[in-house]
Write a structure and sequence with these properties.
Blueprint: H1 3-13, H2 19-28, H3 43-57, H4 61-70, H5 82-97, H6 104-143, H7 148-175, H8 179-182, H9 187-210, E1 218-223, E2 229-230, H10 232-241, H11 246-257, E3 261-262, E4 265-269, H12 270-277, H13 281-295, H14 300-316
C-alpha cells in the first residue's frame, strides 16, 4: 500500500470537532462559575464546558473518564477570558485523540499558564471599562425615567459578552498552542496597561457624576445695594396679591440668568468656593483618600463604615448636608 493511500486512510479515521460541538462548549462556558468551590475554584464549570469535546473525541468510557479527570484540576480566571483557553484545550484534545503525543501534564500546563495573564486583562477591560461605561449610560437613561435604561444594559451587555466568548473561543481553537506565542512579546502587558488607564479615566469621569458632597458652612454674608439683586420680598407680595405678570417673570429670569443674587444678602458657603475652584473637587479628593487607604491594605468594610461615621458626624456638626 502506497504512502499516499495510507495518509488518506489516516485522515479518514481522524476525528474532528463539529461546529455544533463548539457551540455547545460556548454555551456551557457561560456557566463556568456555577459550581465555584474553594478547593479548585472553577474546575467543575470548566469540566462541564469540556464535556461536548470529550464526548466527540473519545469513544470508550475509560478514555472519557481520563479526559474528564484531567480537566477537573485547579482552574481560575476571569470568566469571560476563559474562552480562548477553552479553544486551545479543545484543539489540544483533538490532536491527542488523533494520535499526537501530548501528555496530560502538557494540557494542564497550557491551561494554567494562560489563566493568570488573561485574568489580568479581563478585569480592567470588562469590570474596569466596559461595565462602568455601559452602566453609566444606562443609569442616566433610567434616572430620566426611561425604561430603556435597564433594558439596554441587559441586552447590550449580554450581546457583547456572548459574542466575545464565541469569537475568542474560535480564535483559541484555530490557533491552538500557537496562541501563547501570539500573546507574548509584551502584548499582554500593553493591553492590560492600556485597559487600566482607560478604566481609571472612565471611573474618574464617573466619580463627580455619582458622588454628591455638599458643604453648607457659611464663609461670608454681604449686604447688596438695592437694584443689584432680585427682591424676593417684593416678589412674594406680587405672588400673594396675584399681580405677578408674565413680563415680570421674564425680567426676573433674566436677572437670575445674568448672575444677580436672590435676596439682599449674598451668602458664600464652602461649597460655593469649591465649585469656583474645581467643580467636583471634594468627590475626587475623597476617591484619592479611599484609594490611598486601599493601598495601605485597609479593609473595604472598614472604609465603608468609616465613611458612614464621618458623614453622620459631619452632618450633625453642620459641616455637610
Amino acid at each position: 500500500m502506497s504512502n499516499s493511500v495510507q495518509e488518506k486512510q489516516v485522515q479518514m479515521n481522524e476525528v474532528h470537532l463539529t461546529k455544533g460541538d463548539r457551540y455547545a462548549t460556548w454555551w456551557r462556558s457561560t456557566f463556568l462559575q456555577a459550581a465555584w468551590n474553594y478547593e479548585r475554584m472553577q474546575n467543575v464549570g470548566w469540566a462541564y464546558a469540556m464535556v461536548p469535546t470529550i464526548k466527540r473525541l473519545y469513544k470508550t468510557k475509560e478514555d472519557r473518564a481520563a479526559a474528564l479527570k484531567r480537566h477537573l484540576e485547579f482552574f481560575n480566571t476571569h470568566p469571560y477570558v476563559a474562552s480562548p483557553i477553552l479553544g486551545v484545550e479543545m484543539a489540544m484534545e483533538e490532536q491527542k485523540a488523533n494520535g499526537v503525543d501530548i501528555d496530560d501534564e502538557a494540557i494542564n500546563s497550557v491551561k494554567v499558564g494562560m489563566m493568570g495573564p488573561l485574568a489580568g486583562v479581563g478585569d480592567p477591560i470588562w469590570w474596569g471599562t466596559v461595565r462602568p461605561v455601559l452602566g453609566a449610560f444606562a443609569a442616566g437613561l433610567a434616572q430620566s425615567g426611561q425604561i430603556l435604561g435597564p433594558i439596554i444594559f441587559f441586552v447590550v451587555w449580554n450581546i457583547m459578552r456572548m459574542a466575545f466568548l464565541w469569537y475568542t473561543q474560535e480564535l483559541g481553537y484555530r490557533e491552538g498552542t500557537n496562541i501563547t506565542q501570539n500573546l507574548g512579546g509584551g502584548m499582554m502587558q500593553k493591553l492590560t496597561t492600556g485597559a487600566s488607564i482607560l478604566g481609571m479615566f472612565i471611573m474618574g469621569v464617573l466619580v463627580p457624576r455619582w458622588t454628591t458632597m455638599n458643604f453648607p458652612m457659611v464663609l461670608s454674608k454681604v449686604n447688596l445695594q438695592k437694584g443689584s439683586y432680585v427682591d424676593t420680598d417684593a416678589l412674594a407680595k406680587q405672588i400673594n396679591t396675584g399681580h405677578l405678570s408674565p413680563q415680570t417673570i421674564t425680567d426676573i429670569a433674566g436677572k437670575i440668568k445674568g448672575g444677580q443674587n436672590l435676596g439682599a444678602v449674598k451668602i458664600t458657603t464652602v461649597q460655593d468656593t469649591l465649585n469656583q475652584l474645581i467643580p467636583g473637587l471634594a468627590p475626587l479628593l475623597l476617591m484619592f483618600v479611599v484609594l490611598w487607604l486601599l493601598r495601605k491594605h485597609v479593609s473595604p468594610i472598614v472604609i465603608i463604615f468609616g465613611l458612614f461615621a464621618v458623614g453622620i458626624l459631619a452632618y450633625a456638626l453642620g459641616i455637610m448636608a
